[in-house]
Amino acid sequence: MKPLLSKTTRPFLIFVLIVLMISIPVYYFMVDAIWQNELDEHNEIVAEKTSFEFNRMKIPNEEIQRNITLWNQIQPGTSIIKLSNNNFKKDVIFTTEKYKPFSADKKIERYRCLKKVIYIKNEPYLFTIETNIEETEGTVMIIGIITLFFFILIVTGLFILNRRLSKTIWKPFRNTLEKLKNFNLNTQTQIEFENTDTIEFEELNQSLRKLIAHNVSVYKSQKEFTENASHELQTPLAILKNKLDLLMQNVDLTEKQYNIAEDMNKALSRSARINQNLLLLAKIGNSQFDHSEIINFHELVKQSIENLQEHLDQKNITLQIDSLQDTTVNGNTSLTEILINNLFLNAIRHTPTNGFIFISLNNSVFSVANSGVVKLNEELLFKRFSKLSANNSGSGLGLAIIKEISKSQRWDVQYSFVDNNHVFSVKF
Q1: Which chemical reaction does it catalyze (predicted)?
Q2: Domain 293-427 top-level CATH class
Q3: Percent of the chain at pLDDT exceeding 90
């Protein structure tokens, strides 16, 4: 994950770099076109000035011819050639490439050329001039260097400026985020956000205030419902169970009546367990448990083994402890006890008589494995009231409770089928 600032700065820098790369050829062609236009004007002026100067001279035609001959000899890149009256040409402007004359450097250079008809003493002459235009590349190079310098300056300034501005502009957002992280529904306290002059942050704070107030209200209602349901349902269930116990102790009951009463008692006991488990799931979902306790997990495992030893003996199940490392975790003690007991009861319930159960607590991973034949359906494994076997003695909520407890304490519970063993692992 990346901070928001880097996500906005990086595309901007890439965009600026692309624009800079595109600008280099644009600079070249624009400067070259401007430079050629300036050279064309320069050549035109030179041609006109040459004609003007020769016409201004008060000398005979023979002297003018000698001067033109001398001009052609000492002026590289220019020439003046007399035309016949029937050999006039239009002005021609073009670019040519050739070696630089009178130089040891054999580099090919570009020249801007002009061929123009001028009149000297009313006689037509073809004036040719060639001007080097290699200065264009040097000019573009200088412009490119200057552009690159300002690009680096902009990038550096933008980076420094963003770092400094982010500390002030994003301060209200960070304060809001920090308060949200520390918010706990159990305290049911309203969050007081700091005032800000940024419209977006103020709208965010207002929306969060409404959302938190609504959640607190819903939380209170759900909590009251679970508490009321716990008291209101448990009482009549307990009365019914006591009445059935008394009825079953009546000596006047026939065997058929006794069997009916016993079935009712089993169903009532199961309903009571389901009610307790549903209430527990509701409390977990409403975050009604404190998860800041320091728990000696290995001690709880030992305690659970002692409490469930009778169940192991009834089915003659062999319990094998592979490892039991001293482990300390943060969470809720009551929920952790329920998680461990449910894992053990689930293994005992689905282990055949004379079977084996293996437990391990090592490297922050608690595993419970029991012998089996077929891999369980992982899609239905942790769903409520899902039946994974023909055993109906459970409430169908044990694995769902394990999943919710692990989720609430930020643990990870997983299932695997290895060497004909069902393995449930909880990673802290």
Answers
A1: ATP + protein L-histidine = ADP + protein N-phospho-L-histidine
A2: alpha beta
A3: 8
